[in-house]
Amino acid sequence: MSAAEDVVTEAPAVEAVPKRAMTLGLGTSLVVLAALCLAPLFVKNFIIFQMTMLLIYALAVLALNILTGGSGQFSLGQSAFYAVGAYTSAILMEHANMNYALTLPIAGVICFAFGFIFGQPALRLSGVYLALATFALATAMPQLLKLGFFEHWTGGVQGLVVTKPDAPFGLPMSQDMWLYYFTLAVSIGIYIASVNLLKSRSGRAFMAIRDNEIAASAMGVDVALYKTLAFGVSAGITGVAGGLGAIAVQFVAPDGYTITLAISLFLGMVVGGVGWLPGSIVGSAFIIFVPNIAEGISKGLSGAVFGVLLFLVIFLVPHGARQVAMIAQGLIAKLKN
Fold first, then answer.
1. Does 253 fall in a domain?
2. What stretch of H or E contains 70?
3. pLDDT for the residue 11
4. Which among 25, 39, 89, 216 could disulfide-bond with 103, CB atoms 3.0 to 4.6 Å apart, if both were Cys?
5. CB 217: neighbour CB atoms within 10 A?
């Protein structure tokens, strides 16, 4: 067997996902969108707040999915980018009196640059070594935010309180409801942009690198550029999610962005289905609501219950929500026939 054949037959690091399987069908998408738009009209403010956090974490999971499911790079450092985005929005709102909506693109650009720069040394790493490098970044970030040098801006250990915005133009809705619809609009925009990105030439380059880096390089793909670009895009979207999270929670503090958050986002990506963008919201729902369900079953053993529930999900549907969607699609097709 030739060396070229050896290259072609290497096992891919992440299972490939067909382009048509990356999104939901038009009809299903409209149903989900209608449900997201109408649900806040029938629930209390606390539930609306939880739904807002659901969308915010879904954005962060989607960003990680672009990095891992799109380009095959594993990261346990998304909490660091989330923290940078959150603090950027909080500092601009509280110290510069900037409009909350304007802080989000700034947070995204700063985190994009941060991720792109971090991706440069990460080019020498892959697999578990890249995961360890990003793990180190996530572990260090809360400590860096506590440094006295930044305390005037970040509030140090005490953190910063963020003012929640009112609905504009005198609209008759609560702060929570307005922020939910604002977050929904941002989420839809980023989701559509992400789908188009993965279907574009750059997205094809990402997936070529994911499937076989050596073969992609031989086909003329600039591996170094696209790997750092994937890091930058992922970090930028995560930064926007962090900014929205700071506005929704009305508070930022270093201990809110520990490695636990990074692991939760990675877990959300796996549960939602690696490489399947609509699964991001399913993964987000899992990391938000399942711990509460576990605590409701047993407060003293909530961690053990959560572990059992997670094991069952991984054992029964190893490919996450994507696998459930494919099974449901197959059943519907059989019924139609």
1. yes
2. none
3. 40
4. 89
5. 14
Q: Looking at the whole model, is its pTM more than 0.85?
A: yes
Q: How far is C-alpha 188 from the chain's CA centre?
A: 14
Domain total of the chain: 1
The lowest-confidence range among 92-96, 149-153, 331-335 is 331-335
**Does residue 83 surpass a pLDDT of 90?**
yes
Q: For residue 266, is it within any domain?
A: no
Helix (H) or strand (E) holding 240: helix 223-249
Is 54 part of any domain?
Answer: yes
Q: How many CB atoms lie within 10 A of CB 244?
A: 29
Nearest to 21 by CA among 195, 220, 239, 247: 195
Number of H helices, E strands in the chain: 16, 2
In Å, what is the CA distance from 138 to each residue of 56, 189, 261? 19, 27, 9
Q: Is residue 106 part of a domain?
A: yes
Query: Domain range for residue 148?
Result: 36-258
- Say how far apart CA 98 and CA 93 lie, in whole Å: 5
